[in-house]
DNA sequence: CCGCTGTCCTGCCAGC
DNA sequence: TGCTGGCAGGACAGCG
């Protein structure tokens, strides 16, 4: 499911429960998710204190007090749930079969990582080696950081022969964009997803970079407000309803094309195996 | 090196 | 109702 804004929301939601807290108990219920979990995973986390949380691309980074970093990716179906401390005879909800890892903090809160499709991953790496890890080695700039703007995007797209849609999904070009925000950013920029990536240069790259920033920023804000401090009553993080401008709107009239009697219709095509939604009228 | 395809896994939903 | 096929927001290996 999650792209950059959802991962950011999950990270911010976990902060109050994890930063400065100690892992009292860690339960690992599976050998592997997408990849095998590290050796002695639970033991290595138990007793460790969390120094800070951060995000890089679609990964949440949990910096620990022994110089290691726990990091995880939610894949397509991963979710985190925070359950408050229980006292006496109170019981927590029974575990779901897809609750793969459970963290209990010294405050008595329980954080469950549930991932039905198991496309997610978790790993443990020394902080000094983090940037060399294969998950991060080749990742492009953070779109909301200073290292991303029109000229930089333009440079990274130059000479690329694949479609601009495929290029935006390529984490080496820019980090954190997934299928939905790629569609949304191209739509709002009036750029056809089928254009060769290398043809998006100059003022179009400026516009696209600006649009990417605003679309992601607004999604993070929407997540924060609709989740009320990023945690729902159920304790679940990262899921918020959002109405997209173009994603999922196949067959609907384009809202950007004005009030003409026959506005073009949003079209769905397959690009590198993924659905792309766009307006053939206003995206050129 | 580059770009594209298939694949991992389960859940859900439309259509028959 | 029950079955089936298609689709799902990601990322990687492997191929040409």
Walkthrough of the structure:
The chain is of the alpha+beta class and 284 residues long. It has two domains: 4-132, MutM-like, N-terminal (N-terminal domain of MutM-like DNA repair proteins, Alpha-Beta Barrel), CATH 3.20.190.10; 150-278, Helicase, Ruva Protein, domain 3 (Orthogonal Bundle), CATH 1.10.8. Helix content is 25%, strand content 20%. The protein has six helices and ten strands; from the N terminus they run H-E-H-E-E-E-E-E-E-E-H-H-H-H-E-E. The protein has helices at residues 4-18, 41-45, 150-157, 164-169, 179-189, 202-227; strands spanning 23-28, 50-56, 59-64, 68-73, 79-83, 99-105, 110-114, 121-126, 267-271, 274-278. A four-stranded antiparallel sheet has the order 1-6-7-5. The mean pLDDT is 92. The structure holds a DNA duplex (16 and 16 nucleotides). This is Formamidopyrimidine-DNA glycosylase. Its cofactor is Zn(2+).
List strands and helices in order, with pairings.
Blueprint: H1 4-18, E1 23-28, H2 41-45, E2 50-56, E3 59-64, E4 68-73, E5 79-83, E6 99-105, E7 110-114, E8 121-126, H3 150-157, H4 164-169, H5 179-189, H6 202-227, E9 267-271, E10 274-278
Helix pairs in contact: 1-6, 3-6, 5-6
The structure holds a DNA duplex (16 and 16 nucleotides).
């Amino acid at each position: 499911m999650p792209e950059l804004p959802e991962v950011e929301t999950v990270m911010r939601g976990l902060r109050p429960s994890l930063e400065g807290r100690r892992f009292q108990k860690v339960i690992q219920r599976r050998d592997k998710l997408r990849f095998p979990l590290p050796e002695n995973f639970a033991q290595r986390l138990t007793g460790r204190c969390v120094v800070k949380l951060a995000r890089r691309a679609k990964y949440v980074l949990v910096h620990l007090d022994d110089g290691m970093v726990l990091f995880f990716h939610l894949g397509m179906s991963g979710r985190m749930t925070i359950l408050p401390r229980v006292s006496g005879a109170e019981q927590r909800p029974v575990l779901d079969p897809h609750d793969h890892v459970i963290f209990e903090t010294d405050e008595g809160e329980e954080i469950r990582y549930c991932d039905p499709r198991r496309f997610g991953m978790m790993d443990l790496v020394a902080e000094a080696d983090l940037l060399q890890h294969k998950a991060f080695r080749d990742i492009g700039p953070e779109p909301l950081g200073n290292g991303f703007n029109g000229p930089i995007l333009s440079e990274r797209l130059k000479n690329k022969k694949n479609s601009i849609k495929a290029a935006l999904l390529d984490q080496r070009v820019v980090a954190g964009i997934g299928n939905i925000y790629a569609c949304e950013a191209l739509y709002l920029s009036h750029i056809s997803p089928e254009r060769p990536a290398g043809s998006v240069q100059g003022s179009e790259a400026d516009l696209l970079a600006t649009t990417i920033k605003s679309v992601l920023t607004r999604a993070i804000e929407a997540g924060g407000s609709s989740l009320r401090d990023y945690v729902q009553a159920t304790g679940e993080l990262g899921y918020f309803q959002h109405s997209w401008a173009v994603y999922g709107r196949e067959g609907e009239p384009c809202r950007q094309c004005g009030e003409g009697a026959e506005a073009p219709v949003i079209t769905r095509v397959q690009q590198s195996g993924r659905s792309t939604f766009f307006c053939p009228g206003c995206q050129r």
